[in-house]
Amino acid sequence: GENVEQHPSTLSVQEGDSAVIKCTYSDSASNYFPWYKQELGKRPQLIIDIRSNVGEKKDQRIAVTLNKTAKHFSLHITETQPEDSAVYFCAASNTGYQKVTFGTGTKLQVIP
Amino acid sequence: DAGVIQSPRHEVTEMGQEVTLRCKPISGHNSLFWYRQTMMRGLELLIYFNNNVPIDDSGMPEDRFSAKMPNASFSTLKIQPSEPRDSAVYFCASSYTRATDTQYFGPGTRLTVL
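ok -> structure tokens follow
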């Protein structure tokens, strides 16, 4: 089955700086990579996703990059704000297996 | 749409008791997922259904756990008998057709087993 590793487990940045969270996956058949944000006491919510036919996707201050050769994908948050403070989960799946495997999460703290 | 609905939101029970968690997926969604979240183990997929049929239950920890989806608008996760190590937040999520469609999570049920 798929195995997703996520680093770092915690990340502190100053407001306005950038944050990068990295994930690796094991199953070369994976072709869908969502990222979820979970605020304290709340449910996980999708913030961005990328499919294997593209290498990068952007949505305002958030971007995700994918390197299929290295089986590696990353979340980039620019100009961080205190409201970005949350736990971020990466995940991997493929349309054939129909199962999403989550990483262990990164707790991001943005210091005002 | 009200989103995914879960009940109860909080459940406190004593060891050995039966616990039933309920979920109503978003109308029109064909896939439903049950997750368990703990500090130690993170977010774990327990079981998922497609068109009311269980597709993968390999994440169900043991025979004490069972899940059903009698129709497209309702699912239950039952723990019998419950144990303190079952204490966690249980999330239900649904997606339109497949696991690779966006999953929408419910608010979760915080279970405490004393």
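The first strand of chain B starts at residue 5 and ends at 7.
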